[in-house]
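Support request from a user on the community tier.

User writes: "When I paste my C-alpha coordinates into the form, the page sometimes reloads and wipes my input. The last time it worked, I copied everything first. Here is what I submitted, just in case something in the input itself triggers the reload:"
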Protein backbone atom coordinates (compact mmCIF):
# COMPACT_ATOMS: atom_id res chain seq x y z
CA UNK A 1 0.00 0.00 0.00
CA UNK A 2 1.31 3.47 -0.91
CA UNK A 3 1.08 5.19 2.46
CA UNK A 4 1.39 8.70 1.04
CA UNK A 5 -1.98 8.34 -0.71
CA UNK A 6 -3.77 7.94 2.62
CA UNK A 7 -5.25 11.02 4.27
CA UNK A 8 -3.34 12.63 7.11
CA UNK A 9 -4.94 12.09 10.49
CA UNK A 10 -4.68 14.26 13.61
CA UNK A 11 -1.58 13.38 15.59
CA UNK A 12 -2.30 11.98 19.06
CA UNK A 13 -0.34 14.00 21.61
CA UNK A 14 -0.15 12.84 25.22
CA UNK A 15 0.75 15.30 27.97
CA UNK A 16 2.80 13.63 30.69
CA UNK A 17 4.89 14.59 33.67
CA UNK A 18 5.21 14.67 37.44
CA UNK A 19 2.21 15.49 39.64
CA UNK A 20 1.26 19.18 39.72
CA UNK A 21 3.80 20.20 37.08
CA UNK A 22 0.89 21.85 35.26
CA UNK A 23 -0.30 19.42 32.55
CA UNK A 24 -4.02 20.07 32.94
CA UNK A 25 -3.58 23.82 33.33
CA UNK A 26 -1.53 23.91 30.14
CA UNK A 27 -4.14 21.97 28.17
CA UNK A 28 -6.84 24.01 29.78
CA UNK A 29 -5.30 27.23 28.57
CA UNK A 30 -4.93 25.69 25.12
CA UNK A 31 -8.64 25.09 24.88
CA UNK A 32 -9.62 27.93 27.24
CA UNK A 33 -11.97 26.10 29.55
CA UNK A 34 -11.56 25.23 33.17
CA UNK A 35 -11.35 21.52 33.69
CA UNK A 36 -8.40 21.84 36.10
CA UNK A 37 -10.41 23.96 38.53
CA UNK A 38 -13.33 21.52 38.50
CA UNK A 39 -11.29 18.45 39.38
CA UNK A 40 -11.39 17.22 42.96
CA UNK A 41 -8.20 18.42 44.61
CA UNK A 42 -6.88 19.33 41.18
CA UNK A 43 -5.52 15.80 40.77
CA UNK A 44 -6.17 14.19 37.42
CA UNK A 45 -7.46 10.64 37.88
CA UNK A 46 -8.28 9.64 34.34
CA UNK A 47 -7.10 10.11 30.79
CA UNK A 48 -8.93 13.08 29.32
CA UNK A 49 -9.12 13.59 25.56
CA UNK A 50 -9.93 16.59 23.42
CA UNK A 51 -9.13 18.01 20.06
CA UNK A 52 -7.94 21.48 19.12
CA UNK A 53 -7.78 22.91 15.62
CA UNK A 54 -4.33 24.22 14.72
CA UNK A 55 -3.42 26.80 12.07
CA UNK A 56 -2.40 25.44 8.69
CA UNK A 57 1.31 25.07 8.13
CA UNK A 58 2.80 26.41 4.91
CA UNK A 59 0.98 24.71 2.06
CA UNK A 60 -0.70 22.23 4.39
CA UNK A 61 -4.37 21.75 5.13
CA UNK A 62 -5.95 23.00 8.30
CA UNK A 63 -5.71 20.20 10.81
CA UNK A 64 -6.29 19.37 14.41
CA UNK A 65 -4.35 17.76 17.21
CA UNK A 66 -5.87 15.24 19.60
CA UNK A 67 -4.55 15.85 23.10
CA UNK A 68 -4.65 13.32 25.91
CA UNK A 69 -4.17 14.50 29.47
CA UNK A 70 -2.71 12.00 31.94
CA UNK A 71 -2.34 12.00 35.72
CA UNK A 72 1.06 12.66 37.26
CA UNK A 73 0.27 11.05 40.58
CA UNK A 74 2.54 8.09 41.39
CA UNK A 75 -0.45 5.73 41.66
CA UNK A 76 -1.30 6.07 37.98
CA UNK A 77 1.73 4.45 36.34
CA UNK A 78 -0.42 1.96 34.38
CA UNK A 79 -2.30 4.89 32.85
CA UNK A 80 0.97 6.58 31.95
CA UNK A 81 2.25 3.42 30.27
CA UNK A 82 -0.98 3.22 28.28
CA UNK A 83 -0.73 6.89 27.35
CA UNK A 84 2.81 6.38 26.06
CA UNK A 85 1.88 3.34 24.00
CA UNK A 86 -1.13 4.80 22.13
CA UNK A 87 0.39 8.15 21.25
CA UNK A 88 2.37 9.66 18.37
CA UNK A 89 4.00 12.36 20.46
CA UNK A 90 4.62 12.79 24.19
CA UNK A 91 4.87 16.30 25.58
CA UNK A 92 6.90 15.97 28.79
CA UNK A 93 5.92 18.80 31.12
CA UNK A 94 8.62 19.75 33.64
CA UNK A 95 7.92 22.52 36.13
CA UNK A 96 10.85 24.94 36.06
CA UNK A 97 10.71 25.45 39.82
CA UNK A 98 10.75 21.73 40.58
CA UNK A 99 12.91 20.14 37.88
CA UNK A 100 13.14 16.40 37.28
CA UNK A 101 11.08 14.37 39.74
CA UNK A 102 10.30 10.60 40.00
CA UNK A 103 7.39 10.60 37.51
CA UNK A 104 9.40 12.78 35.12
CA UNK A 105 11.99 9.98 35.05
CA UNK A 106 9.27 7.38 34.63
CA UNK A 107 7.96 9.21 31.55
CA UNK A 108 11.47 9.51 30.08
CA UNK A 109 11.88 5.74 30.44
CA UNK A 110 8.48 5.05 28.83
CA UNK A 111 9.30 7.27 25.86
CA UNK A 112 12.73 5.67 25.44
CA UNK A 113 11.08 2.23 25.30
CA UNK A 114 8.79 3.43 22.48
CA UNK A 115 11.32 5.67 20.76
CA UNK A 116 10.82 4.15 17.30
CA UNK A 117 7.14 5.13 17.34
CA UNK A 118 6.85 8.07 19.71
CA UNK A 119 8.22 11.59 19.29
CA UNK A 120 9.22 13.65 22.33
CA UNK A 121 8.78 17.36 22.99
CA UNK A 122 9.79 18.87 26.33
CA UNK A 123 7.80 21.76 27.79
CA UNK A 124 9.57 23.53 30.64
CA UNK A 125 6.55 25.01 32.41
CA UNK A 126 5.81 27.67 35.04
CA UNK A 127 8.43 30.05 33.63
CA UNK A 128 6.28 32.92 34.94
CA UNK A 129 7.39 32.07 38.47
CA UNK A 130 10.07 34.33 39.95
CA UNK A 131 13.64 33.04 40.17
CA UNK A 132 13.18 29.91 38.07
CA UNK A 133 16.41 28.53 36.57
CA UNK A 134 15.57 27.08 33.14
CA UNK A 135 19.22 26.39 32.39
CA UNK A 136 19.46 24.15 35.45
CA UNK A 137 16.35 22.20 34.39
CA UNK A 138 17.74 21.65 30.88
CA UNK A 139 21.02 20.37 32.30
CA UNK A 140 19.06 18.00 34.56
CA UNK A 141 17.27 16.71 31.46
CA UNK A 142 20.59 16.13 29.71
CA UNK A 143 21.84 14.25 32.76
CA UNK A 144 18.69 12.08 32.52
CA UNK A 145 19.58 11.21 28.89
CA UNK A 146 17.14 13.58 27.18
CA UNK A 147 19.24 14.98 24.35
CA UNK A 148 17.82 18.44 23.80
CA UNK A 149 18.50 20.26 20.52
CA UNK A 150 20.46 22.84 22.48
CA UNK A 151 23.01 20.15 23.36
CA UNK A 152 23.18 18.81 19.81
CA UNK A 153 20.41 16.23 20.24
CA UNK A 154 17.06 16.03 18.48
CA UNK A 155 14.57 16.70 21.29
CA UNK A 156 12.90 20.11 21.00
CA UNK A 157 12.37 22.04 24.23
CA UNK A 158 9.91 24.91 24.61
CA UNK A 159 9.62 27.28 27.59
CA UNK A 160 6.02 27.89 28.56
CA UNK A 161 3.62 29.12 31.17
CA UNK A 162 0.36 27.22 31.18
CA UNK A 163 -0.93 29.87 33.55
CA UNK A 164 -0.46 32.95 31.36
CA UNK A 165 -0.19 31.23 27.98
CA UNK A 166 3.36 32.34 27.23
CA UNK A 167 5.08 30.03 24.74
CA UNK A 168 1.99 27.95 23.96
CA UNK A 169 1.89 29.06 20.31
CA UNK A 170 5.46 27.89 19.96
CA UNK A 171 4.62 24.63 21.69
CA UNK A 172 1.80 23.93 19.21
CA UNK A 173 4.10 24.87 16.30
CA UNK A 174 6.78 22.51 17.59
CA UNK A 175 4.27 19.67 18.01
CA UNK A 176 3.04 20.33 14.48
CA UNK A 177 6.55 20.18 13.07
CA UNK A 178 7.24 16.85 14.80
CA UNK A 179 3.88 15.48 13.60
CA UNK A 180 4.63 16.54 10.05
CA UNK A 181 7.91 14.63 10.11
CA UNK A 182 6.12 11.58 11.48
CA UNK A 183 3.59 11.83 8.64
CA UNK A 184 0.76 10.11 10.53
CA UNK A 185 -1.78 8.71 8.07
CA UNK A 186 -5.28 7.37 8.55
CA UNK A 187 -6.08 3.92 7.28
CA UNK A 188 -9.80 4.48 6.94
CA UNK A 189 -10.86 1.47 4.90
CA UNK A 190 -9.49 -1.03 7.32
CA UNK A 191 -11.11 -2.60 10.26
CA UNK A 192 -11.71 -0.22 13.16
CA UNK A 193 -8.87 -0.36 15.65
CA UNK A 194 -8.39 1.69 18.80
CA UNK A 195 -7.93 1.61 22.55
CA UNK A 196 -10.17 2.26 25.53
CA UNK A 197 -8.87 5.30 27.41
CA UNK A 198 -11.48 5.03 30.13
CA UNK A 199 -14.86 3.47 30.79
CA UNK A 200 -17.74 3.96 33.20
CA UNK A 201 -21.41 3.35 33.80
CA UNK A 202 -23.48 6.28 32.64
CA UNK A 203 -27.08 6.94 33.59
CA UNK A 204 -29.38 6.27 30.66
CA UNK A 205 -26.59 4.87 28.47
CA UNK A 206 -25.25 1.94 30.50
CA UNK A 207 -21.58 1.09 30.00
CA UNK A 208 -19.73 3.73 27.98
CA UNK A 209 -16.09 3.83 26.89
CA UNK A 210 -13.90 6.64 25.64
CA UNK A 211 -12.19 5.08 22.65
CA UNK A 212 -9.12 6.51 20.93
CA UNK A 213 -9.51 5.51 17.29
CA UNK A 214 -6.31 4.77 15.37
CA UNK A 215 -7.66 3.05 12.20
CA UNK A 216 -10.95 2.81 10.37
CA UNK A 217 -14.09 4.88 10.71
CA UNK A 218 -16.47 4.43 13.65
CA UNK A 219 -20.20 4.79 12.96
CA UNK A 220 -23.25 3.89 14.94
CA UNK A 221 -24.53 0.41 14.22
CA UNK A 222 -21.13 -1.22 13.72
CA UNK A 223 -20.08 -4.12 15.93
CA UNK A 224 -17.05 -3.83 18.20
CA UNK A 225 -15.19 -6.32 20.36
CA UNK A 226 -13.08 -5.38 23.37
CA UNK A 227 -11.68 -8.02 25.73
CA UNK A 228 -14.60 -10.29 26.44
CA UNK A 229 -17.30 -7.71 25.87
CA UNK A 230 -18.85 -6.34 22.69
CA UNK A 231 -21.01 -3.52 21.44
CA UNK A 232 -23.36 -2.59 18.69
CA UNK A 233 -22.48 1.08 18.68
CA UNK A 234 -25.56 2.99 19.81
CA UNK A 235 -24.23 6.53 20.11
CA UNK A 236 -20.97 8.41 19.58
CA UNK A 237 -20.14 11.57 21.48
CA UNK A 238 -17.10 13.78 20.96
CA UNK A 239 -14.95 14.54 24.04
CA UNK A 240 -16.51 18.01 24.12
CA UNK A 241 -19.96 16.44 24.44
CA UNK A 242 -21.46 16.80 20.96
CA UNK A 243 -23.20 13.86 19.41
CA UNK A 244 -21.36 12.82 16.21
CA UNK A 245 -22.22 10.47 13.33
CA UNK A 246 -18.72 9.31 12.47
CA UNK A 247 -15.35 9.26 14.19
CA UNK A 248 -12.13 9.42 12.18
CA UNK A 249 -8.72 8.00 13.09
CA UNK A 250 -6.64 10.13 15.43
CA UNK A 251 -9.68 11.23 17.42
CA UNK A 252 -11.46 10.00 20.50
CA UNK A 253 -15.16 9.51 21.21
CA UNK A 254 -17.42 8.19 23.93
CA UNK A 255 -19.04 5.00 22.64
CA UNK A 256 -22.25 3.52 24.07
CA UNK A 257 -23.92 0.19 23.36
CA UNK A 258 -21.59 -2.11 25.29
CA UNK A 259 -22.89 -5.35 26.75
CA UNK A 260 -20.56 -4.98 29.73
CA UNK A 261 -18.04 -2.39 30.85
CA UNK A 262 -14.82 -2.65 28.77
CA UNK A 263 -11.48 -2.33 30.55
CA UNK A 264 -9.37 0.78 30.14
CA UNK A 265 -6.32 -0.03 28.04
CA UNK A 266 -7.94 -2.88 26.09
CA UNK A 267 -7.86 -2.94 22.30
CA UNK A 268 -11.08 -2.30 20.36
CA UNK A 269 -11.64 -3.97 16.98
CA UNK A 270 -14.60 -4.08 14.62
CA UNK A 271 -16.02 -7.16 12.93
CA UNK A 272 -19.21 -8.89 11.89
CA UNK A 273 -21.66 -9.77 14.65
CA UNK A 274 -21.12 -13.51 14.17
CA UNK A 275 -17.31 -13.26 14.07
CA UNK A 276 -17.34 -11.18 17.22
CA UNK A 277 -19.63 -13.58 19.11
CA UNK A 278 -17.38 -16.49 18.11
CA UNK A 279 -14.23 -14.58 19.10
CA UNK A 280 -15.72 -13.73 22.48
CA UNK A 281 -16.59 -17.39 23.08
CA UNK A 282 -12.96 -18.28 22.35
CA UNK A 283 -11.58 -15.50 24.55
CA UNK A 284 -13.77 -16.55 27.48
CA UNK A 285 -12.76 -20.24 27.09
CA UNK A 286 -9.08 -19.27 26.90
CA UNK A 287 -9.43 -17.17 30.06
CA UNK A 288 -11.13 -20.10 31.82
CA UNK A 289 -8.35 -22.51 30.78
CA UNK A 290 -5.67 -20.07 31.94
CA UNK A 291 -7.49 -19.61 35.25
CA UNK A 292 -7.75 -23.37 35.83
CA UNK A 293 -4.03 -23.81 35.01
CA UNK A 294 -3.12 -21.18 37.60
CA UNK A 295 -5.33 -23.04 40.09
CA UNK A 296 -3.45 -26.26 39.35
CA UNK A 297 -0.10 -24.52 39.86
CA UNK A 298 -1.24 -23.11 43.18
P1 LIG B 1 -1.82 16.20 38.07
O1 LIG B 1 -2.85 15.96 37.05
O2 LIG B 1 -2.33 16.01 39.47
O3 LIG B 1 -0.56 15.41 37.84
O4 LIG B 1 -1.38 17.76 38.02
P2 LIG B 1 -1.14 18.62 36.72
O5 LIG B 1 0.23 18.36 36.17
O6 LIG B 1 -2.27 18.48 35.78
O7 LIG B 1 -1.06 20.10 37.35
P3 LIG B 1 -2.25 21.17 37.40
O8 LIG B 1 -2.54 21.70 36.06
O9 LIG B 1 -3.35 20.58 38.20
O10 LIG B 1 -1.51 22.35 38.18
C1 LIG B 1 -0.96 22.19 39.48
C2 LIG B 1 -0.76 23.54 40.12
O11 LIG B 1 0.25 24.29 39.42
C3 LIG B 1 -2.01 24.41 40.10
O12 LIG B 1 -2.06 25.11 41.31
C4 LIG B 1 -1.77 25.37 38.95
O13 LIG B 1 -2.42 26.59 39.10
C5 LIG B 1 -0.25 25.55 39.02
N1 LIG B 1 0.29 25.86 37.68
C6 LIG B 1 0.12 25.16 36.55
N2 LIG B 1 0.78 25.74 35.52
C7 LIG B 1 1.38 26.83 36.02
C8 LIG B 1 2.21 27.85 35.44
O14 LIG B 1 2.52 27.87 34.25
N3 LIG B 1 2.65 28.82 36.29
C9 LIG B 1 2.33 28.85 37.61
N4 LIG B 1 2.81 29.84 38.33
N5 LIG B 1 1.55 27.91 38.17
C10 LIG B 1 1.07 26.92 37.40
NA1 LIG C 1 -2.67 18.65 39.95
MG1 LIG D 1 -3.81 17.14 35.78
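"...and here is what came back when it finally went through:"
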Amino acid sequence: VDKSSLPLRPPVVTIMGHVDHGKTTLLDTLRSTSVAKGEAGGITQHIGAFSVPVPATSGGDKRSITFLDTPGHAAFSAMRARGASVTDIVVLVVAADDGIMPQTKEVIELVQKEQDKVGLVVAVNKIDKPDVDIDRVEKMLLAANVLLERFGGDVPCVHVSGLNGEGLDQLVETINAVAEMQDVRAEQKDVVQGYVLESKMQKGLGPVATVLLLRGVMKSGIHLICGTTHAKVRSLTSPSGESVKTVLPGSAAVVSGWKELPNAGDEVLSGSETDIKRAIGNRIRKAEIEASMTDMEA
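Agent notes: The reload is a front-end session timeout and is unrelated to the input. Residues 273-297 form the longest helix (25 residues). The CA atoms of residues 196 and 211 lie 5 Å apart. Escalated to web team.
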